[in-house]
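Support request, please re-run this one:
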Amino acid sequence: MLMNTDKFGKRRCHRPITVMITFLVLFGTQVASGKIGYLVAGMIPYQHLDPFDSFARISLHHAVQLLIAVATVLVLHKRMHLDFQFRLGDKKAGIKALAMFTATFAVISVLQHALMAMNNQLPVYGFPLDAANVLGNLGFQLFLSGPTEEVVYRALPIVLLSHACGRSVSIKGSLTLEVVLSSVLFACAHIRWSLVPLTFEVDYFQILYAFVLGTIQGIVYQRSRSILYPVLMHSLSNVLMVGGGYVFTAWVS
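Re-run finished. Output below.
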């Protein structure tokens, strides 16, 4: 038996060391794929398309990360028979979660940017808000941010951590250990750090924001049994937040 229950009837993992090693391997792989993404992006001359470096570099970076992640999924599916749930899954549960999340996030985005506008705290952009930059950025958020980050930080870690433990480990209700650990990895991806030179920068609000959204999307991934709905949630929330900044900045200027 890989699992047993504690006195409260909750399942516990009998492979903590395996889970810890898997967590560290995932972290290292995510860091490596990100660096490879920027390395490849730096080798492609995109400046004529994006002279302000506002969307092309990050788009190339995410495209490379997505290719690496999908290749990894295909190999693991074939060799280890792991199911990463690249299907429609429970459409009713997925669509309901997507609709509720998007509606709530739209309201939050409007209220947040209205408050920022009133306090003169709207984002300051390092590029003109012309059609090329706005559409390029929104296109990145819609077509690359969700697919890439949900495969890298949701599907891969949740399935591999669950596999490492022997099965899904419930913490409370729909919240599982593998979802929490995957959200920690997602939050860590929003920390700016390097070894040479030694730097470490943390925006605590951004870390908490990434952890909470990652947890919500992880729960939806497991409940809907599909990566599609977290991908759409991720992409649409980014479009709403980034687009909200553009709209309010243009409105007050």
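The first strand starts at residue 3 and ends at 5. The beta strands are 3-5, 11-13, 170-172, 175-176, 192-194, 199-201.
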